[in-house]
Specification:
With 229 residues, the chain is of the alpha+beta class. Helix content is 41%, strand content 17%. The radius of gyration is 21 Å and the shape is elongated.
Length: 229
């Protein structure tokens, strides 16, 4: 049975000892209009901020007692955050290290409920000129075709590509299929003269660079890896 969340009147100041106004609960209270302690309770019931973001408005109303207005406001806030993350991963940015890819794409892909494989096309200066999704669904190793991954790269005469895919489980550890596919893509890139600059696996807010692990060729030296050709 849902327990109604107590609203926080905007004219009343938060009492001492309430959550950090810049923390998850504090921001949630500000956006939705809840008492700070009620925002803490809401996060705990939902299983954290990421889990809360996966709730539909109807679930927020039914399971957590939010009003229709507050549920819609919260859903809109999460949707806006996802759009900001997607905008930051749009073409026009330069890749200098695996973290440039990992941090941008982890924010954009962390909440996906199914696997996606995306390809970034790069010019000779490692600037992303295009980005597109090749697969969406269950990415069994046998379903990834090298030709489809490189199709637009060949057509647009890209200098290099970066492949990114997510693990909905939240664990970015590469599987055996991930390593095999990476080796096949790297070899195809050498034949096509379009380098596979990296393959990044995203899991939740974490990510792993397969280039840094040596899966695309010689392993990167110790320290912050830099991508160069």
């Amino acid at each position: 049975m849902a327990t109604n969340i107590v609203p926080f009147p905007p004219s009343v100041e938060a009492p001492a000892g309430d959550p950090d106004p810049g923390g998850d609960a504090g921001l949630l209270a500000l956006v939705v209009g809840l008492a700070p302690n009620a925002a803490v309770t809401l996060l705990e019931r939902a299983g954290g901020l990421a889990a809360l973001a996966d709730h539909l408005p109807d679930e927020l109303i039914r399971d957590h007692g939010l009003s229709v207005r507050r549920a819609r406001a919260l859903g809109a806030a999460f949707a806006l955050g996802r759009r900001v993350a997607e905008a930051r991963s749009a073409p026009g940015w330069c890749i200098r290290s695996p973290s440039d890819v990992g941090e941008r794409l982890a924010a954009a892909m962390a909440g996906l409920e199914r696997e996606e494989l995306r390809v970034l096309l790069l010019n000779t200066k490692n600037v992303v000129t295009a980005a597109y999704t090749v697969y969406a669904g269950n990415l069994a190793g046998s379903s990834v075709r090298v030709g489809e991954v490189f199709r637009d790269a060949v057509r647009r005469q890209a200098a290099a590509i970066v492949v990114v895919h997510n693990h909905p489980s939240g664990d970015p550890s590469p599987s055996g299929d991930d390593l095999r596919i990476t080796a096949e893509l790297a070899e195809a890139g050498r034949l096509l003269d379009i380098e596979l600059l990296d393959h990044v696996v995203v899991g939740g807010s974490r990510w792993v660079s397969l280039r840094a692990l040596g899966a695309t060729g010689p392993p990167e030296p110790a320290g912050p890896a830099r991508l160069s050709r």
